[in-house]
Amino acid sequence: MINVNYIEFGEKISDHLRSLRAELHSNPEPSTFEEITSQIILKELKNIGITDIQTGLGNGKHGIIANIEGGLSGKKVALRADMDALAIEEETDLECTSKNKGYMHACGHDNHVAMVLGAANIIYQNKDKLKGSVRLIFQPAEELSPEGGAKSMILEGVLKDVDAIFGFHVWPELPFGVMGFKEGPLMAASDYFHVNIKGKASHAAGPENGVDAIVAGCEYVGAIQHIVSRNISAIDNAVITVGTINAGTRYNIVAEDFKVEGTCRTLSPEIRDLVENRLEEILEGICKVYGCKGELNYQRGYIPLINDSEMTKYAKKVALDLFGEKYVQDVKEPVLKAEDFGFYLAEKPGSFIWLGTAEQDKDYWPLHNSHFSPNDEVLYRGSAMLAKLAFEFTESNK
Ligand code: NI
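Above: the input record for the complex with nickel (II) ion. Below: its predicted structure, written as tokens.
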């Protein structure tokens, strides 16, 4: 095994990572507009000494990949960070608060970029001992569901010759510094649907002369609630949520139009297909019953994020070696949030790891909240972990 003291290397660059993250945090940019972010990344990669860099990739063309070649031959491992921020007005009391009004790094992607840059720093300083190579992937537009930046980066060929891929998400539901591991499904597929039910308007006092889209539509919204409870095993998970309904024009007119919008979250391709099919079948049935016309527009977004078992076991062992049992947890249940890291995992084995940021006696702020501001002491820990993961994977027989 390679003898590198990852924690010590991490601690040495900790202050630098904190200032990098502060610079990223004060310059949040929305999906496909990550221009300053990509400049900060590029400058740091060059500072580290990395020369094999490709820019202008992915949705919006601000994605970057960089390669670190080891002194000895071995495997190729990819480390991924997402780059974009959200349209949220920041309300933290951080010194490095957003300079871009109306936008904020409220999903921690500034942390992910800083951690991968930190890992790059540690790996580069020890590259003579590296067997194989490491690919750094800085991906734009993670928040751009249903399209997302991961697919566009994969189309650019960023996974070419890659043997495995790893990535982090800061996670405010886990204690500070604790890493969460789960084999199999970790995060959900996220789909959007829109239904139009068309009836026929008539005087409210003469409904027999029209076709009431509201009666049919309400029946439909009620009926699709039973898909999860009656068509899906109680052991599996899915959510179907109707978020908007728009219908009718006036209180004394039988409504001609009924429009429904919603989202479906599922954890397997089979259940995803089933949900889409049932939404269509139930619509056809109800339209037949009520004499309406129905149209379902189902848009598939991110696929489920399914961690490779072997790679997850491997990553967990690396975390145990590095931080001990106190900082390692098994994640029991998947969540129905979505992440486009799942697209990489559909192509290559790998694992997506949660990195805890919850601190005792501090307020809890979830992801996508205007107060979300994890303690930046977490950065060097993430970097040390990614560096060790990469080093030991590239020399392994996995
Ligand atoms: Ni995120």
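Notes for the reader.
The first strand starts at residue 53 and ends at 57.
The pocket of nickel (II) ion is lined by residues 107, 109, 142, 169 (CB under 6 Å).
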